Amino acid sequence: MNRRYRKTIIAGNWKMNKTITETKEYAAEMREILGKPKWCEAVLLVPPVNLQAGVRAFKDVKISIGTENCHYETSGAFTGECSAEMVKEAGAKYVVLGHSERRAYYNETDMDVNKKIHAALRAGLRPILCVGESLEERELGVTMEKITYQLKCALAGVTPEQVRRIVVAYEPIWAIGTGKTATSAQAAEVCGAIRTLIRKTYGARVARSMSILYGGSMNAKNAAELLSNEDIDGGLIGGASLEPKTFLEIINASNQD
User: Fold this and answer.
1) What pLDDT is stored for residue 35 in this prediction?
2) What is the pLDDT of residues 135-165, one digit of tens each?
3) N or C: which end of the chain has fewer CB within 10 A?
4) Over the range 218-242, which residues count as b (16 or more CB within 10 Å of their CB) and which as e?
5) Residue 9, SS3?
6) Model confidence at 257: pLDDT above 70
7) What is the average pLDDT across 25-42?
8) What backbone torsions phi and psi does residue 29 show, to the nearest 5 degrees?
9) At CA 241, angle to CA 235 and CA 243, rounded to 5?
10) CA dist., res. 4 & res. 10, Å (int)
11) Distance, CA of 51 to CA of 65 (rounded, Å)
12) DSSP per residue over 180-241, as a string?
C-alpha cells in the first residue's frame, strides 16, 4: 500500500447472500465493533434489493455501500436487470463490474464490461473493475497477456479524468472461492504490472493515484502479508466479508505503517 498517493480500500462482495433482515443485523453488529477505520475506506457490495436498506442501516457506520452489477442501458426491455442510474439513486457509491462469475455464468464479454464502465461513470458511480486469469492461462504463462487484453477492452474510450474514478481488482479465477490464494509475490507482480500498464496508457500521475486491489480468497490470516506490498492497495473480499468480525480483522490488517 502507498497511502501517500492513493486510497486503501477494503471491499466486501456479498454476492447472492443476505436478506434485508440479515443486512440490518450485520450493520447492528458492525456498529458495535467497527469504530472508525483508521487507514482505509471500508465498502460493502450488496445485492441490489438490499441497497436502500443497507444505506439506511450503515448511515452511522463508517462503511460505504455499493452493489455487484449494473446494466449498460439506462432503461429498456431487460428483464431482471438494473441500470447504473437505478443503483445510484438507490444509494450505491461503488459497483463491481466484470467479475469472473458474471463473465462465466452470464457470458459477459469484455466489450459488455466496457459499456458498463461508461454507464457507471456517467451515473456517478465508482466502478470496481475485475480482471484475472484462469489456472490454465497462468500455467501457459499468458497471465499478463490476458489481463492486458481485459484492461484495454474495459477502458477503451475512458479519459484520464474518468479513469481516476476506477478501482481495479486483480482476481485470479483459480483463487476465487477455492481457498487457494496467489502468493504475496504473485499478487504483487500482477498488481505492479497493472499499474505499469496504466502508467503507459494514462501517465504516471494517474497510475500513482489508482487503487489496485487483490481478490481471490483474501482472509484474516493472509491479509496483512498481501497488503504489505507497495502495489496492493486493498482487497475485494468474498466469503470472508460475510461475518462482521472476520471482515473487521481484514480491515484492521490495513492498519500498517
Assistant:
1) 79
2) 999 999 999 999 999 999 999 999 999 999 9
3) C
4) bbbebbbebbebebbbbbbbbbbbb
5) strand
6) no
7) 89
8) -70, -45
9) 155
10) 17
11) 7
12) ----HHHHHHHHHHHHHHHHHHH-HHHHHH--EEEESS--TTTHHHHHTSTT--EEEESGGG
Distance CA 130, CA 72 (A): 16
Q: What pTM was computed for the model?
A: 0.95
d(CA 89, CA 188): 36
Q: What tens digit of pLDDT does each residue of 187-222 get?
A: 999 999 999 999 999 999 999 999 999 998 899 999
C-alpha cell, 219: 482472509
Mean pLDDT of the chain: 94
- Give the angle 256-41-201 at the CA atoms, nearest 5°: 90
Under 8 Å between Cβ of 136 and 173: no
239 grid coordinates: 466469503
Residues 6+ apart with CB under 8 A from 140: none
Q: How far apart are CA 61 and CA 241, in angstroms?
A: 16
Query: Choosing from 41, 99, 108, 133, which is the catalytic residue?
Result: 99
C-alpha cell at 128: 470496481
What's the pLDDT at 190? 96
- Residue that is written with C-alpha cell 456517467 in the block: 122
Is 99 noted as a catalytic residue in this protein?
Answer: yes
Report yes or no: 232 and 250 within 8 Å, Cβ to Cβ: no
Residue 171 annotated among the catalytic residues of the structure: yes
